[in-house]
Amino acid sequence: MNPIESLTYPILAFTPNGVMPYSKYDNLRRVMKHEYDMNWFKDLEVVDSAGACAIIRSARIVKQPMLASIFGGMVEVEIEDAEKLCEYDLVTTKDRVQEFLRLYPDGYQSMGILDELEGKVEKASSVHQVVEAFMR
Amino acid sequence: MHLDGNVLKSGPVSRSTGGYPDWTNVRQRLGSSGWAESGQDVHHWMIPRNGWGKNVPDVVKNQKWNLMRMPSRSEHFRVHGWSFDGQPGYNLPTRLWRGTPTPAKLTIGGGIIVVGAGYYYFSE
After folding, report:
1. Which of B11, B86, B93, B98 has the fewest other C-beta atoms within 10 Å?
2. What is the pLDDT of residues B15-54, one digit of tens each?
C-alpha cells in the first residue's frame, strides 16, 4: 500500500487546475488525458482530512481508452513514487490552500465561486471542513 | 490577513470592484432573492466570466439570461471540460447540451426549425 492510499479521504490535491477535492483513492487515479499531459502527477501535493500532507512524485498510465490522445477521455494511473511529508495543523492548511487559490484562481474564478470558497476556508474550524468546502 | 489601505484586515482579499454589476454583488443578490441557493454554482452559459468573456462588461454578462443554476459542483466542472473527483469532463457536444438552459435550447431549436421550414417553403 502506498502512502497516498492510506490517507484519510476526502483529500485536497494541489493540481495544475487549482485545488481539487477527491473523495477516494480510486478517483484520484483518474484524470483526463490532457490533464495527465500537463504533468498532473509530477510532484502533486495532497493534504488529507486529518491534515496529513503527502506528495506524489510520479504516476504512469495503466488504462487508456483508444484514441484518448486525440479525442480526450479519462486515463487511469498507477502511482509509482510517493511519500508522506508532514502533518499540517488547521492554520497551516488554511494558509496553504489560500496561497494556492491565489496562485491558481482561474478555475474557481470563472465559475464564480472563488470568493465564496475563500470565505468557507477562512471560517473552517477543522481541516476536514476545509476539505469539505471543496467537495460540496 | 491583508492590508486594506493602511488597515490590517482579517479574511481573504476581496476581488469585488464594489460596483452593482460586479459578480460578487450579483451572486449575493441572486442568493438573497432566492434565485440560487447559498453555495450553489452558477454557470455563465453564453458569455464566460473569463477567457474571451473578460472583454464583455459585467453589466452584460452578469445578467440572469446568461446565468444557469448548476445541480452540483461536479456538473459545473465537467461542463467546463475538466474532470472532477474522478469523473470525466464532458466532450464538446455534451458540454454545449448540458451547459445550455432549456429555454435557450428551445429558442435555438425553434429558430432552426423556422429557418429550415422557411427555406423549404420558399425554395419550392
Report:
1. B93
2. 555 678 888 788 889 989 999 887 788 899 999 887 888 8
Helix (H) or strand (E) holding B1: none
A116 and A74 in contact (C-beta within 8 Å)? no
Within 8 A of B76 by CB-CB distance, chain A residues are: 111
pLDDT in tens, B92-107: 899 999 999 999 999 9
Q: Provide the residue count of chain B.
A: 124
Contact A98 B41 (CB under 8 A): no
ipTM of the complex: 0.82
Asked whether the beta carbons of residue A26 and residue B86 sit closer than 8 angstroms, the reply is yes
Flag whether residue B111 sits within 8 Å of chain A, measured between CB atoms: no
Instruction: Give residue B5's pLDDT.
Output: 43
Q: Is B95 on the interface with A (CB under 8 A)?
A: no
* B31 in contact with chain A, both atoms CB, cutoff 8 A: no
User: What is the 8-class DSSP label of residue A11?
Assistant: E
**Whether the bond into A10 is cis, omega within 30 of 0:** yes
Whole-number Å distance between alpha carbons of B99 and B79: 6
Nearest to A28 by CA among A6, A52, A130, B95: A6
